[in-house]
Amino acid sequence: MSKGALDGVRVIEICHHMAGPTATQKLGDLGADIIKVEPPGLGEWTRTRPIGNAWVGEFNTSLIALNRNKRSLTLNLKEKEGKEIFSELVRTADILVSNFRPTVHEKLGTDYNAMNQINPRLIYCSITGFGESGPYEKRPGQDLIVQSLSGVVWNSGRKSDPPIPLGTFVVDAATGNLALAGIVSALYAREKTGKGQKIEVNLLSSIMDVQIQEFTTYLNVGKKPERSEELMAHPFINSPYGIHKTKDSYIALAMTPYDKLSKALECDDLKKFSKWEDGQAYKEEIFRIVAEVLLTKTTVEWIEQLDSYDVWCGPVQTYEEVAQDPQIEHNRTIQSFTHPKYGKLKFVANPITLSDTPISYRMPPPELGEHNTEILKELGLTDQQILSLQQKNVIQNVQPETFKI
């Protein structure tokens, strides 16, 4: 099997939650060696607090989703021996990724300036909620909080609805991907300069980037998104863009010229709307007309009919339906690996495709401290030194019996 694009690159992860781990997981998929440094005891946050409180034995689904292709090293960074081992690890590393606040690193001595003194070639990626300085630097940067602050929550739902948050951790995911882009860019720059550098990404800037069209429109012409009383999917896109009820379920309609839509729906009431700007000027009336027509047939019937007129549409699927979707199967979006203790574990595949240095899924998520001995021996420690570290609780080798809460 071909080696990954980042084979030979070593990454230190000192992260929790989602934004940092999703970035390092993708680096691992690309072939990098990811060493996940965790505190002894319960490890990082995700090990004990999964979404949905969903568990597979002592593993949880959040851990499975975010931590493949990593090795786990438990290390107490508050102890002298722990700091010394971490420094040795940094000397061997290419990248360090963290999503802790800068004040945490200052206390532990793991801030960029200290790490740069140890290894000038180190690429140091800092992921924060709002940035490393400014009026919000000490505020908790969490996905929902940042969604709400950024304005994105105001743009969904009906006009009479309260602000509606997005139904997934889109800010964390976007931030992790931006971190990935910054890291690989810095790796390329280092090939030319021989020097590492610091990368900073934050959740607030990431969700602003997601809103790049909407906010640019506001900044340049003062036009604000205005929700309608109908359930349109986007306040700036022409009606009937959104989700509609059919005879048996729901269908999504995208942008379509009204003459074409009138023929496809066999609806004469739409013929009076002939201009592009009608979609904004009469958006609630258009939405109601289309919604009423769509109630007369099933989703499958409408998709067949609308496809024949090249009207952009699609079904609104449940997770059960998505898992069986033929395009999802064709793309091999759902993958699995076999864990020696928990058997077959399924996960969502990395979306990147490389022809010569393919993505690989080499390791399931690690048990807490699973690779302590392996990693420390790579740093030159003896069995006796490792045993001494265990006795002093600088590292640990044995997981607690259960992490369930």
At the first level of CATH, the class of the largest domain is Alpha Beta
Mean pLDDT: 91
Number of strands: 13
Helix content: 25-40%
Number of helices: 17
Estimated share of beta-strand residues: 5-15%
The CATH homologous superfamily of the largest domain corresponds to Crotonobetainyl-coa:carnitine coa-transferase, domain 1
Short description, anyone?
With 405 residues, the chain is an alpha/beta fold. Helices cover 38% and strands 14% of the residues.
Overview of this protein structure:
InterPro entries: CoA-transferase_III_domain, CoA-Trfase_fam_III, CoA-Trfase_III_dom3_sf, CoA-Trfase_III_dom_1_sf. Keywords: Transferase. One of its GO terms (molecular function) is CoA-transferase activity. This protein has 17 helices and 13 strands. The protein is an alpha/beta fold. It has two domains: 260 residues, 3-Layer(aba) Sandwich (Rossmann fold), CATH 3.40.50; 82 residues, formyl-coa transferase, domain 3 (2-Layer Sandwich). The longest helix has 24 residues. The C terminus is likely disordered.
Helices and strands, with pairings:
Elements lengths: L9 E5 L4 H11 L3 E6 L16 E2 L2 E2 H6 L3 E5 L5 H13 L2 E4 L3 H7 L3 H7 L4 E6 L14 H8 L19 H24 L4 E5 H8 L1 H10 L20 E4 L4 E4 L4 H8 L12 H4 L1 H12 L4 H10 L4 E3 L3 H5 L2 H5 L3 E6 L3 E6 L23 H7 L4 H9 L14
Parallel strand pairs: 1-2, 1-6, 2-5, 6-7, 7-8
Antiparallel strand pairs: 3-4, 9-10, 10-11, 12-13
Helix pairs in contact: 1-7, 6-8, 7-8
